[in-house]
Design goal:
The chain is α+β, with helices and mostly antiparallel strands. Helix content is 33%, strand content 25%. α4 (93-103) packs antiparallel against α5 and α8 packs across α11. The longest helix is centred in the N-terminal third of the chain and has 25 residues, at 15-39. The chain starts with 14 loop residues before the first helix and ends with a strand.
């Protein structure tokens, strides 16, 4: 009997096998491409090299934060520092910090960093030259971006003055994790009662920051934030890109956050074929922010409604989608000058909503890690923390004065439950080392 079964042509793979191989190859390429990005959030040399790139373009505030992140993990300046394998780099974080601080006009702090660099590496022509400038009182020529042209105020008698107040449904805050509702549950009918309105107090006209970020130990990087172009509805003469850039500048100047470069965000938006006007939904925006390595996403809007115009800002955690902060300001005048002033107030409000706090691990049971800081201290659901283990003190190489302590970064945690004096967290991904009772944490 003739064999009618089909055989594969010699030397060729069946289509199903070829398809599987193509998929597998695509996954390998994707992982290989993503690996450097993932590592960049964890290793000292990624922070250092990023700082060098930013410094070369004159972005001193962002470069400063990158070098601080690097120094928090590997403190000493050395001629050759091993990164991985047989790769070595010249590693001078304190020299770079001194340069950044000098360019930002903080001459006294710049001097301290430069002298510390010379304590590790006495023969440093670059540090000597900069110290001579500081001794002579020579300030750098500060390079600033030209201020955008201020558009004329929009006169519109139909838009009455609006009091600066925020009203957010209490149920919305509970769902977002900003409000603890205890054991409240949805009725069995699935019908929710109309939510009560929670009024957030008016922001002061000239708000002050509530703490100094330099007073809290830094381990790795601060909370990374991406600012999307604002959505502008019903108001003419405003650019969503300008508003995002203005708020980004305000957040950078506070030196609390690691603000993602706008160019990186624009590149991803173009690659994903997304519009640049802010017209993306929250789910798309969160995924976009993840692609640029952001811990949190800032979404804003300017909207004209029946009661007047308002400026709105939300900060959303990219891991959980929880709203970490939300503010809404009524606009008395629709002009860029007014908007920029309000953006400064909003930036400070966001800064105060996301405080830098330190605490201790009091218990680590399986996937749950208990900390001795809670809601009273300002911690909310969705906050991210860095867990670390404290080691031997770092002494000044010439004076012997204690400068700080060596730290080992263990991993990151996210708050899943908040009590007055305690929070329960869970690890994000796999910690580099096991987190134990007695280890320490700081908010990102």
């Amino acid at each position: 009997m003739q064999n009618t079964s089909r055989h594969s042509t010699p030397g060729r793979c069946p289509k199903s096998v070829r398809g599987f191989l193509l998929i597998w190859l695509g996954i390998v390429v994707l992982l290989a491409t993503a690996a450097p990005t993932l590592a960049a959030t964890e290793k000292f040399f990624n922070y250092y090299e990023k700082g060098q790139t930013l410094a070369s373009s004159g972005d001193w505030p962002r470069a400063l934060e990158e070098f601080r992140s690097a120094a928090s993990l590997e403190f000493e300046d050395v001629k050759r520092k091993r990164t991985y394998g047989t790769r070595f780099i010249s590693y001078h974080p304190h020299l770079q910090l001194g340069i950044c601080l000098y360019q930002l006009g903080d001459l006294e702090e710049a001097r301290k960093e430069l002298l510390l660099h010379k304590a590790y590496l006495p023969k440093s022509d670059e540090a000597d030259a900069l110290l001579r400038k500081i001794d002579k009182g020579e300030s750098p020529e500060v390079r600033t971006q030209a201020a955008p042209a201020v558009e004329p105020e929009i006169e519109d008698a139909a838009v009455p003055p609006v009091d600066i107040v925020t009203t957010i449904p209490e149920a919305s805050l509970a769902n977002s994790g900003m409000l603890d509702t205890g054991s409240a549950s949805v009725p069995s009918t699935g019908v929710l009662e109309p939510p009560a309105l929670l009024t957030i107090p008016e922001l002061p006209a000239n708000p002050d920051v509530s703490y100094s970020p330099n007073a809290i130990l830094q381990v790795g990087s601060r909370l990374s934030i991406a600012v999307l172009p604002f959505e502008v509805t019903g108001v003419s003469g405003f650019s969503g890109e300008h508003l995002a850039e203005a708020l980004t500048s305000e957040l950078v100047n506070l030196r609390r956050f690691r603000v993602i470069e706008r160019t990186a965000l624009d590149k991803i938006m173009q690659e994903q074929a997304l519009g640049m006007s802010g017209m993306v939904d929250q789910a798309e925006a969160v995924e976009l922010a993840k692609l640029v390595g952001a811990d949190a996403l800032v979404m804003g809007s300017v909207v004209r409604g029946e009661g007047g115009s308002s400026l709105n800002v939300r900060v959303i955690d990219t891991e959980t989608g929880v709203a970490l902060a939300a503010h809404k300001l009524g606009l008395r005048k629709e002009s860029l000058r007014t908007i920029d002033k309000e953006l400064n107030r909003l930036a400070v409000a966001v800064y105060n909503d996301l405080p830098l706090l330190s605490g201790n691990v009091v218990s680590a049971e399986g996937d749950e890690v208990y900390l001795d800081i809670g809601g009273v201290a300002g911690v909310r659901k969705g906050f991210k923390l860095v867990a670390y283990r404290q080691g031997q003190p770092i002494l000044h190489p010439t004076t012997g004065v204690e400068l700080g302590v060596r730290v080992t970064q263990l991993g990151e945690l996210i708050v899943i439950q908040v009590q007055d004096q305690m929070v329960i967290t869970k690890p994000i991904g796999d910690p580099e080392l096991e987190i134990q009772t007695g280890d320490k944490v700081i908010t990102k």
